[in-house]
Design a protein that fits this description.
By secondary structure, this protein is an alpha+beta fold. It has one domain: Double-stranded beta-helix (4-Layer Sandwich), CATH 3.60.130.10. 22% of the residues lie in helices and 25% in strands. The chain has 7 helices and 16 strands. The longest helix is centred in the C-terminal third of the chain and has 15 residues. The protein is globular, with a radius of gyration of 19 Å. The mean pLDDT is 93.
C-alpha cells in the first residue's frame, strides 16, 4: 500500500509501509533541528503508525543524540554495552574490537526495551551504519492489535492481570550469567499485562523476553500463558519486517510494539552496525 498522503504539517509527507504498523516520513533532513510544529506532527505520526522510517539520513553520533532528544529524555545505555564513547549512544554491532564479524547477533528474541524497569523505554532510534549485503532485518509486532484481536472472553479474563518482567530471569533463559550488582540493580517489576498507552489510551499486550510470570498465578501456568500470548502476538499477520537500507533511521514506540533482530544473514561473515539512542518512558499505570 504505497499511498502517499500529506501529513498535518506541510514540511513532510507520510508513506504507509504496511497495514500492521510503520510509515516512512519523507522530506526531512534529521541533521537539522525540527521546528515545533514539525516535531509535534512527527510525534503524532509516531503515535499513529508506531514506527517511523526516515530514509537516506547521514547522522553523526551527536546529531543522532540531538535528533532523539527533541522527543524526550535520552536514556544512558547499560554499563555492559560496549562500543561507544558517548554514554547516550549505544553501538549495536556484531564486530569484535578489531572489526571482525563475531557470528554473534544480539536481541533476536521478541522484547520491548527495558520492560523490566519501573519506567520502561518509550522509544528507540536505530540508524544503519553498516549493513550486510542482504538480511539483518528487524521485526516488529503490533501489541495494540495483539490485545485487540484476542477473543473477548480471554480479554475479560486477563483484564487487571499483572505481569512481572525480570532482567535476571531473561538473562538466565538466554543462558547468560549476570553479576550480583546487575541483579540488584534490576529487581523484578510488575506491570499491567494489558498496558494502557500513556498518550493514546489504547491497551497494548505487554509481554516479550523479559516477561517472567503472571502475578497471583503459579509459575508454570503463568509462563505457559505468556508464551501462548506471545505466539499470538508475533504471528506473521501481526508483524512488520524492516529491510534496512543504507541511511535508514527508524524510531519506534516500545509502549505498543515488540521487536527483534532477525538472524537472516551470516553474522560470522558480514558486518552489521547500527547506532542506537533511546528515550526514557514513564512508569506503567493502571
Ligand atoms: C535494540 C534492538 C534489534 C536489531 O537495539 O534495542 O533490539 O535489529 N535491536 O538490532
Ligand atoms: Mn531492543
Amino acid at each position: 500500500m504505497n499511498t502517499i498522503v500529506p501529513a498535518i504539517a506541510p514540511s513532510f509527507a507520510i508513506n504507509r509501509l504496511s497495514s500492521i504498523l510503520a510509515a516512512e516520513v519523507i522530506g526531512l533532513d534529521l541533521r537539522k533541528p525540527l521546528d515545533r510544529p514539525t516535531q509535534e506532527a512527527v510525534y503524532q505520526a509516531f503515535l499513529q503508525y508506531q514506527l517511523l522510517v526516515f530514509r537516506g539520513q547521514a547522522l553523526g553520533k551527536e546529531q543522532q543524540i540531538a535528533f532523539t532528544g527533541q522527543f524526550g529524555t535520552l536514556e544512558k545505555h547499560m554499563p555492559c554495552n560496549q562500543g561507544s564513547d558517548l554514554s547516550l549512544l549505544h553501538v549495536v554491532s556484531n564486530l569484535d574490537e578489531r572489526g571482525v564479524p563475531t557470528g554473534v547477533l544480539g536481541s533476536t528474541r521478541w522484547h520491548s526495551d527495558k520492560s523490566f524497569r519501573a519506567a520502561p523505554s518509550m522509544a528507540t532510534v536505530l540508524h544503519a551504519v553498516q549493513l550486510p549485503p542482504e538480511g539483518g532485518d528487524t521485526c516488529f509486532a503490533n501489541m495494540y492489535r495483539a490485545w485487540e484481536t484476542l477473543p473477548v472472553a480471554i480479554r475479560a479474563e486477563l483484564e487487571g492481570v499483572r505481569v512481572v518482567h525480570s532482567w535476571a530471569l531473561s538473562r538466565d533463559n538466554a543462558g547468560k550469567i549476570i553479576s550480583e550488582a546487575e541483579r540488584l540493580d534490576a529487581p523484578p517489576m510488575s506491570h499491567p499485562l494489558a498496558r494502557p498507552h500513556p498518550d493514546t489510551g489504547r491497551r497494548a499486550l505487554f509481554v516479550g523476553a523479559h516477561a517472567s510470570h503472571l502475578e497471583g498465578l503459579p509459575l508454570a501456568p503463568g509462563r505457559a500463558r505468556i508464551e501462548a500470548l506471545e505466539t499470538h502476538a508475533t504471528h506473521p499477520s501481526n508483524v512488520y519486517q524492516h529491510r534496512w537500507a543504507p541511511g535508514d533511521v527508524i524510531m519506534w514506540d516500545n509502549r505498543c510494539l515488540l521487536h527483534r533482530a532477525l538472524p537472516n544473514f551470516d553474522a560470522a561473515a558480514h558486518a552489521r552496525v547500527l547506532h542506537r539512542t533511546c528515550l526514557r518512558g514513564t512508569p506503567t499505570s493502571e
